[in-house]
Structures are given as C-alpha cells and as structure tokens.
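Quick start: read one record
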Amino acid sequence: MRFEFPSRFYFITYRPGSRNGILQDVREALEAGVRIVQYREKELPLRRQLEEAAELLELCGNFGAALVVDDRVDIALAVGADGVHLGPDDMPTEIARMLLGAGKLVGVSVRGVEEALKAQEAGADYLGVGPIFPTSTKPDAGPPIGLQGLRAVRRAVHLPIVAIGGITPERARAAMEAGADAVCAISAVVGERVGEKIRAFLHQVEVRGDDPVGIRP
C-alpha cells in the first residue's frame, strides 16, 4: 500500500504557541480540511501525553483523519494511533516499522538526498523535508535547504513529501511546484484563528489539480 497525503496541509500541534489548547487547535484544523495531524508534545508527563493522544485520536477519527505521534512509538502503540513521525535522533526507522507493523504510518524527517534515500530504504511511508526556509519554531533545525534542496530530494525518492520550515501561504505554492505533496507550517498558523490560517494555505495548494486520496494500493 502506497501512502498519499489525505490533505495538502499537514498539521503539527505546538503547545508553546497555542492560545486555546491543543484539542481546540486540532478541532479547528480538522474543520478547515486537515486530514493528517502530528501530535508533538515535549512538555507533559507521560501519563498526560497518553490521555491527550487518546483524546486526539478520537477527535481525528470523527473527521476521518490520521493521527501520528512525534518521536514516541510507545505512545502510538498504547493508544492505537495511525503511526509515528521520527527525527534523526529518534528510534531507527527499521525498528519502528518492526514494532508498529505494516499497517501503520512511519514518517521520517530528512534534510537532503542521502537521508531521504536511507529513510526510503528503511521502510518510511513519507518524508518531512526541510527546513526549506529559515524557521523560528525549531532553532536547531540547521540551515535551510531551499527549494533547490527540495527538488533534489523529489528527484531522488518516490515517497510522498511534506515540506516544512518557514512555509507561509505565499511560499506554499512554490514548495508544491518544487515537488512537495503537502506543506506544513507551525508558527504561521498557531495562536488565534488556526482554522482561518490553514484555509489560506489550502487555498494556495489545493489548486494544484490532483486529488489527495489517502492510501492506495
């Protein structure tokens, strides 16, 4: 089964920038048309993360959306989430795949072609590529790879790509034209009017023409 993004905007929760709480942010994102959500939590105790992840999974299920958990394979397994998203310092992709099984999503963050090829070989379902532009949300993300770097990754792999890092509605179209299948923004959507901001992104990227359909054989 080949994964395809069920929406052109990939939403990541971000507690430091949230004004109305994570659940409300996700609800607004889903109402705006988002169909894949990453639960990214660095602050709460494990027990509370489990509770919140379960609440988010139920909420996403009401909209037919997928929930992936950042870093924590154990939390994804415990609540029955749709998958995980892994960074360079997280559990190796091969081990996550072995634990989760073939029916769950494994996304991997990469910066360039070499990392992308390794992730593809290891069994990743999709890639988070970036930072494309300078980003304030993740200061340790490294220098931006630019649209040229995104194009290079697109040429090298067949996996779906979500572009991240400094993405704005104005830059979203360029990222899609450079080969991204979806875009993600954190600082540009957190705070107030989350849904309204996401709709501005979707207006830019959904005119690309092809219809996102989730998972296909």
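The first helix runs from residue 22 to 32.
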